[in-house]
Amino acid sequence: MKIETEYYQIAYSGNVAFFDNNQYLHFHKGILEYVGVYQKGKGIKRKVVVGDTVKKVVEKLGNPLTQMNASESIYHSYGTDYTDPELTVEIKNGKVFSVQLEKFTEGFPDENRAVQYYLNKNKDKISFTK
Fold this sequence. Notes:
Layout: E1 2-4, H1 7-13, E2 15-19, E3 23-28, E4 31-37, E5 43-44, E6 48-49, H2 54-61, E7 66-69, E8 74-78, E9 87-92, E10 95-102, H3 112-120, E11 126-127
Antiparallel strand pairs: 1-2, 2-3, 3-4, 4-10, 5-6, 5-11, 7-8, 8-9, 9-10
């Protein structure tokens, strides 16, 4: 895994990211705020994984809270806030290309509970690494 940061980012903003070709993890002041996976078969088991069809995503997660069309991708967003969705599914050529979980916080440990609650909400395990 590679690291994406510079000393001043950790010292002043608290941001650090770890990544490889299959995943991206972003931490703010030691709290995981964003996870993105790109490897086929990875994502949220029994819900949505990279490689699933759009039909399967809608069957498992329902209609998205919002949907955005970009040049090559369609983004289906799920969660509780239209402007800050917790789950985004990127679709390319009719298949899931990436699964992204995100919950911004102010960097206080108590707020990490919101991220943990969302990740464990359905008691499904997240498979972001081998």
